[in-house]
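Standup notes
- DV: blocked on the single-chain target, sequence here:
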Amino acid sequence: MSIIPVLLWTDALLFFLVLAIVLAVFYARGKEHLAAPWRQVMRSRMGVASMLVLLIYVCIGVLDSMHYRKALPSQENAGEQHYSAEVLSVLDLLMGPIKDNVETTYSAPFATHAFAREMQQLPDGQQQRIYPRLKYAGIHLDDPQTDRFADIFSRSMMAVLSGFLGLLMFALLLVLWLSKRQSKSFKEMFNLVVRGRTEVPWRVLLLTLGIMFVLLCWCAMLGSKYHILGTDKVGQDVFYLAMKSVRTGLLIGTLTTLVMLPFAILLGIMAGYLRGWVDDVVQYLYTTLSSIPGVLLIAAAVLMLQVYIANHPELFETDAARADLRLLFLCVILGITSWTGLCRMLRGEAMKLREMDYIEAAVAFGVGKSKIITRHILPNVMHIVMIAIVLDFSGLVLAEAVLSYVGVGVDPSMHSWGNMINGARLEMAREPMVWWSLMAAFIFMFILVLAANLFSDAVRDAFDPRLRK
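- DV (later): unblocked, structure below
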């Protein structure tokens, strides 16, 4: 079946950000003052482990950003090919069995029967309220009551074995590459990696990667046969919804930072170095903006965008395009309202740097203000910028959950952890309680925020001149 690629605004910005990061890595390799701190990050065990977890999340977000639309079955004598209004992604293609196995309503994790009783007609013609059998979960079992636990255990053991074999193959290739690169024997290099005596903590990286391999194999083997995190009210797999929400969390954390950085860096450095009326204007701007409640400002902006979308439906070909515009607009609003803290820090740092001897020497030699800012002040405040970027990322991911919970976040049709939490507040109040949607959003968000915070600690230790070893 033919497809047509779809490029949303957030897709283009995410790909641009990934390309910028790759180019920045190659640029930093040739600059010793940039490469040295990153080498220290790579020597940190916690930094390497958290960076690997973040890379897994980034890979999921990139796969979910490769969108396309399927072609509809062509009719006879039809001259034009029409395409489906549903926008899918490569992640949807990879998770096809999990995505398509939609039940009727709620079901618990690894359950083979529905969560609530339904009126069913028995073979003898009588009607009785029973827990009906699910259409997809455990359908391969003849007797779920006796075979389910044995089947889950055997598939889990196969997943552990497959993950271990994948880790072993990767470890052997890694040791072979390291032995050739460092001109050592394979056995000697293997002992160094196993004992953790290498400069880069390869042992920690392999252990983290092994856990990832096992979890990936476990989800692949059990996700197609069971709903490992249950289903929601309309029968969709909760694990699939949580995976689809990764892209929204990453976009909120990264695109908002891209919007915030130009305001914070430019205005903060100008206010601290130029002083005078420039400093007064910048202080007035961020003081006024900080005094406005952020939630009210975001709510007003989102409501205005909703009115615009409702009055111009012809501008959006699909529902995904409409939801994507709202997500992009939310990132812009969050960026405009969150640059004040970093601006204050950069202003204070620039005020301190302008009194340093090398800045006064540059002024005495007649160097222009723009060159002093770009060549002397900006490189010396980049450690603050790097630390703020990583620290603010986790805060922005949590902000999306809070905003979606109060109804002013992303579009309700878009998958996000905030929308999952918003839907779970009614599920937690029912009897019996449906707890797995909230738990799934909490687990995925907790792992991402924890990895970002641990990575920010490693970046802070490496880039802060007062803590650098």
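- Follow-up: The chain has 17 helices and five strands.
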